[in-house]
Amino acid sequence: PQTIYLKDYTPFGWHVESVHLTFRLAPHSTRVLSKIRFAPNPDAPAQTFFLHGEMLKLIAAKIDGAPVTPDVTDEGLTVAVPSGAFLWEAEVEIDPKGNTALEGLYMSNGMYCTQCEAEGFRKITYYPDRPDVMSTFTVRIEGDEKVKLSNGNPQAEGDGFAEWHDPWPKPAYLFALVAGDLVNHPGAFTTMSGKDVELNIWVRPGDEDKCAFGMEALKKSMKWDEEVYGREYDLDIFNIVAVDDFNMGAMENKGLNVFNSSCVLASPETSTDANFERVEAIIAHEYFHNWTGNRITCRDWFQLCLKEGLTVFRDSQFTSDMRSAPVKRISDVIDLRGRQFPEDQGPLSHPVRPESFQEINNFYTATVYEKGAEVIGMLKRLVGDEAYAKALDLYFDRHDGQACTIEDWLKVFEDATGRDLSQFKRWYSQAGTPRVSVSESFADGTYSLTFRQETTPTPGQPEKAPQVIPLAVGLLNPNGDEVLPTTLLEFNQSEQTFNFNGFAAKPVPSLLRGFSAPVVLDRDAGREEQAFLLAHDTDTFTRWDAGRQLARETLVDMILTGATPDMAYIDGLEAVLRDETLDPAYRALMMGTPSQSELAQVLADRGHVPDPDAIWQAAETLAQVKAERWTDLLPRLAAEAEVTGTYSPDAEQSARRALGAAVLSLQTRLDGGAAAEAQFARADNMTLQLSALSNLIRAGRDEAALKAFEDQWRGDRLVMDKWFGLQIAATTPEKVVPRTEALTAHPAFDWKNPNRFRAVMGAMMTHHAGFHSADGAGYRLLADWLIRLDDVNPQTTARMCQAFQTWRRYDAGRQETIRTELERIRSKQKLSRDVDEMVSRILG
Ligand code: B3K
Ligand code: ZN
């Protein structure tokens, strides 16, 4: 496979002045007629005229009305063109029903839909399929389907056809078409300048009652973007469509967002609180792309973080404003440490702006998205809120309608603030998670903190230079009073000392407040300091993190030495849990412990070979000891967690239910599942039903409940995904592989549906002790299914290869088995480019 490099970027030799498309829909033989006006691009070097095209049958082509015969390959075509402007016309035939990769135009449950990002438009017609080629699109759809949608505003509709026109120039990856017998949940919004916008959520008949929450989330997003970023919507209509077969969460096509149904449909009976929150966040994310992604797009796919990092940052600001900011921050850090850190510290490590790729779909990663968002958060901290707002205004002013780079983005900040950001730019080019170590000293009233930073080599980057690390710190005196409020230190050298004067006694540092930079902080300060911070820290993040570190240290001790749990941690935590002034959601987060995979990484970093069974056992013991120690605390918390009145997925109620779920999981260790069984019987919403079921599974008392749940929900695809996943995720290690295997034989295991496949295989690969069972059965089972799925859906297959990215942590036996399985995948006949690249990078 060919490698594409950022340094080889050249502009396309022509501008596209307009695009007219006609679709004659038919499941196996859709005809696509294109009329495209090209004009020479004076700023581009001379080049052969080339249009991308894959899986297309060319029926006819014309230039300025005269038939031509292009040279066609698997990747596109070349043809001789006039030296000035010209009209290109082509007719191609495609097979939407045969398209199982879910990229380009495909069918899902009898409905036509598209996914073009990143390079799917080339499976629809011949085109310069690159984000820096922008044009206006007019689309005519011919077919019997009741509903026929495309981007922009509706232009005409009649018997068997519909026409749409999108006045905003856009790259082809934002093109979308949907056609089917859909029904809509309507809504309306008036923008800040008084323009009325028609809103719709389109779904399959039967799903109408699951749209109200998504519609409210959309309106809130539109309002928030006006109030916080001054950004108004720019078309007469905004459509969202729910699709059951979809490779990712959702897609921000101009004026026509297409969603995985799991990310838009929601109802109390079928969705958990977490599902509601996710729907709200994804609707916001896709809506926010209208300005950060669509109006200003990426010059090339290396710049993906320009739109994704910024849009993730914006959606997390939105969630913080709608719900609890501390809870959102902690949840984001858990997610970052759980998904991005392993990526950044393993063979798949790559910069936020990668410099090469074989398959761009493999770079829609936690690094580009979540670390990309962290980089923007750091920038905002460094320049301050006011300068951030000024820079963003300048960005929208200067670059509206353009395809931009990270250089353009940083220049806006430099111009708005006068700051030199050349060192800061390393966050975009240097891969790996910086480790920051700290030492302190105290003499004559002066307290000093010395920081050192180091980033270990990552693939292709043996040497690392120091980065600009914004460190938010505070100091507490020994009584627990804050003597230095949160202060931002700019740590930009390999080693640097900061002094603080005027203290009578040595203060206690509270470091990396708010998780002000995506780094690993190595502070060997001892448990007393952590316990002190857990009790007294005024920063909600570092206070939570102190508890987390205590949990981590006691677990590591238990694993390595068979020690019993540290009572100072358990008692310190209890004091926090008893504080009823603290948000129940915050206390629920406090009750969590580092994931077992995270513990494996900590052990590996400290030179030990992690034993998944020992890690599992330690986590079990710790939970058991907490449960036994807290016999009078648990009922108190359970009472606080009680919700009265009608279900609402708002932050207040969800917080109580989150606390209730944490309590129930400990309670189950004491009563063998009695409370869970009672909750299961009376649950009238999915949050309670699922937490009850999860505990019954964990307690091995699940046969009747699983059956009842299946009987109740067999008609609901999204709920059944939960049923499939949970019985693997919540069970004990020895049952993981046999259960997964049994579920793959279940008649409802529709493995070509990405949600179902991920529900089952994703649950297995994230069950740490189950997946890493010493006999290698988990590895083999996953590899068997990845080999099978690759012929059908390379994108989803490649993504799931990530299960193997941490393989070098483990013992020689496990490493050997994983290597064998990776080699077996790599030697598959007709392996996709997607999977080939992933497996090769993982093997290193
Ligand atoms: N931009 C899309 C992701 C497309 C992924 C293509 N493999 C969704 C989003 O980030 O909003
Ligand atoms: Zn996005």
TrEMBL record:
It comes from Sagittula stellata (strain ATCC 700073 / DSM 11524 / E-37). Its cofactor is Zn(2+). This is Aminopeptidase N. It comes from the Bacteria. Residues 213-427 form the Peptidase M1 membrane alanine aminopeptidase domain. GO terms for biological process: proteolysis. The keyword Hydrolase applies. Residues 432-523 form the Peptidase M1 alanyl aminopeptidase Ig-like fold domain.
